[in-house]
Design a protein that fits this description.
It is a single chain. By secondary structure, the chain is of the alpha/beta class. The protein contains 14 helices and 26 strands. The strands form 6 sheets. It has an 8-stranded parallel beta barrel with strand order 1-2-4-5-6-7-8-9, surrounded by 7 helices. Helix 4 (about 95-105) runs parallel beside helix 6, helix 8 (about 215-225) runs parallel beside helix 9 (about 245-255) and helix 9 runs parallel beside helix 11 (about 285-305). It starts with a strand and ends with a strand.
Length: about 525
């Protein structure tokens, strides 16, 4: 069973959950959303919720049938970073001692504590400069955050409550982990569990970085591979979303095989706030997003059930855990937008049927030999223009986002969204080269996603605002004839035909379709 949860930030706990009226509203909201679990925050932005209130709220939710865990957001500690003030200086003694107190006090109340993704630093103050010595700031930030994690978070929590499980939540921005202190190899080993942030939000909002919806899928499964069983879930929020892009986050999180989904957070989801014409942190249509989620819930549950015991199949796309790409940043997350079924990886996989290698892979030991061996063995290997330049090699099959196919004067050669503008006559042969070893050929316009599970299930998502028609030749996969076994859409119904060799599927705008053999079908159509 897929688990759904939400977070009550410290300010909400302190201001709204003290009184019975506010606590009852919160319980009713969680029940109406059919949640299983709540996270109750003890500290955020300098506010520490008193122990008696934390116990009261914890026990009330437990009595109402919810699992109640704790959470801490390490923001506004005694010494802020001299760069981004919401981050902290972890070299500073007062900051460290505050962390010790926070986690000692929180572990007295909760057996599970989530650490929100503010456990990073970009501080370059005099203290940090002196402490880093000959190390680069990137290396120092990873070292000091790991040290603080072990000595001032994990040790105090485990000392006070030996059975306490402390979870680190990594943010969405996987190309900036190392330089900001997230050493995902050492911290994943040290913490009891990990989570991942899937907040792709509104792809058309420059304020948030214009992340594609497929980023949530990529980073979710990448974290699963990173954690080797330690990754427990993913979370997302309503900032600058529309109901359809909010649901994209939910669907992509499930497609990435999350065991639990957190809807961040109660305070942002119970009302609509801000101006929809200004897509920034002050706009979140929480009430609209909540309504859309509740309406889609049965279909989301069905999707999670269908893939629960299946394995993701696809083109291996490795991203080295402790390396931040400088060029083609986050490009790993964009291949899904052009119908390439992706299998995120943390390591180079020798037996991968096919591989895409970008600048995210340039620092793997033996990367040149890996490419040469795959080429010699005839195993499909596509590289990006950025990796080609970084390694000084020439690839036979290359993805180049820097080519101005549109001819526009304001073309940005670094924009990863350019991958959706590569002409089909150029991209189709590259996709075919990658998917033939997976037993299929796929034809579609851009912003149509394809996810594969085992050899007998395909999920196609139309992220466009208009209907599209796609073609699938599944000759090399499970030979049983495919049916539409689930549709995630608000109104319309897709159409599927089969001519004995290939399938033609017409998909309404903003719709996901799950294909599988008839014996898999529990005809679930619509929200």
């Amino acid at each position: 069973m897929h688990i759904y949860s939400t977070l009550f930030i410290a300010q909400t706990v302190d201001e709204e959950l003290r009184a019975e009226e506010g606590l009852k509203k919160a319980v009713d909201w969680c029940r109406a959303s059919k949640l299983h679990k709540v996270y109750i925050e003890s500290f955020r932005d300098g506010l520490f919720v008193d122990k008696d209130l934390l116990i009261k709220v914890r026990d009330r939710f437990a009595a109402e049938g919810f699992t109640a865990h704790g959470c801490v957001t390490t923001s506004h500690l005694p010494k802020p970073s001299n760069n981004w003030p919401d981050a902290c200086c972890y070299t500073n003694r007062a900051t460290r001692e505050m962390l010790r107190e926070i986690f000692e006090r929180t572990a007295e109340v909760f057996d599970v504590i989530m650490v929100d993704d503010f456990l990073f630093t970009d501080c370059t103050c005099e203290e940090c400069t002196k402490a880093k010595g000959d190390r680069s700031f990137d290396d120092y930030h990873s070292d000091v955050t790991h040290e603080v994690s072990k000595e001032y978070i994990l040790a105090p929590a485990h000392r006070v409550n030996p059975g306490c499980k402390v979870i680190i939540k990594y943010p969405l921005w996987y190309e900036d982990y190392h330089k900001n202190g997230y050493d995902t190899l050492r911290q994943t080993e040290a913490f009891d569990a990990i989570w991942i942030g899937n907040e792709t939000r509104e792809p058309d909002a420059p304020f948030w970085g214009r992340f594609p919806q497929t980023n949530a899928f990529y980073v979710m499964e990448w974290a699963n591979k990173l954690g080797h069983g330690k990754c427990l879930g993913g979370w997302f929020d309503p900032y600058s979303t529309k109901p359809e892009t909010y649901l994209d986050q939910a669907i992509m999180t499930i497609l990435g095989k999350s065991g639990e989904t957190m809807l961040y957070s109660y305070d942002t989801l119970k009302e609509n706030v801000g101006n929809p014409e200004v897509l920034d942190a002050n706009y979140y249509p929480g009430a609209d997003d909540t309504e859309a989620f509740r309406k889609a819930r049965n279909s989301l549950d069905r999707l999670a059930d269908l893939i629960e015991n299946k394995k993701i199949k696809g083109v291996s796309v490795p991203k080295q855990p402790h390396h931040d790409a400088v060029k083609e940043r986050f490009l790993s997350s964009y291949y899904g937008l052009i119908g390439i079924p992706v299998s995120p990886d943390t390591e180079l996989t020798a037996d991968a049927p096919s591989v895409i290698l970008g600048t995210q892979a340039e620092n793997y030991p033996g990367i040149r030999e890996y490419i040469a061996k795959r080429t010699e063995d005839g195993k499909p290997t596509v590289i990006t223009k950025g990796l080609e330049e970084a390694l000084g090699i020439t690839g036979k099959h290359v993805i180049d986002i820097s080519e101005n196919y549109s001819g526009k004067d304001d073309f940005d050669p670094t924009d990863c969204w350019n991958i959706t503008r590569i002409p089909e006559d150029i991209m189709d042969p590259v996709r075919d080269h990658l998917t033939k070893p997976l037993g299929l050929i796929f034809r579609s316009p851009a912003r149509v996603t394809l996810n594969l599970y085992d050899d007998d299930m395909e999920v196609i998502g139309n992220l466009n605002n208009e209907e599209v028609t796609v073609m699938l030749d599944l000759s090399g996969r499970d030979p049983r004839e495919r049916n539409i076994i689930l549709t995630l859409t608000e109104d319309n119904t897709p159409a599927l035909s089969y001519d004995g060799k290939k399938y033609t599927l017409t998909i309404p705008a903003r719709t996901y379709v799950v294909l599988g053999p008839a014996d898999m079908a529990d005809q679930s159509v619509g929200f």
